[in-house]
Amino acid sequence: TKLELGEVRRSVRDWKSAAIVIFFNYAFNPFLLYLFGWIFLRDHPDLWTGLVLLGVAPCIAMVLVWTDLARGNGPLGIVLMAWNSLIQIVTTPFFIWLILGARVSVDLGLVAQSVLLYLGLPLLAGALSRRWILRTKGEPWFQKKALPVLENVQLVALLLTLVVMFALQGDVILRQPSLIWKMAVPLVLFFFVLFFGVMLVSRKVGFCYADSATTSFHCTGRNFELAIAIALTAFAAQPMVAVSTVIGPLIEVPLMLTIVYLAKKLEWRLFGTNTAGACQVQESQEEVSSSVAA
Question: Which domains does the chain have, with CATH numbers?
Answer without folding.
Answer: 5-293 (1.20.1530.20)
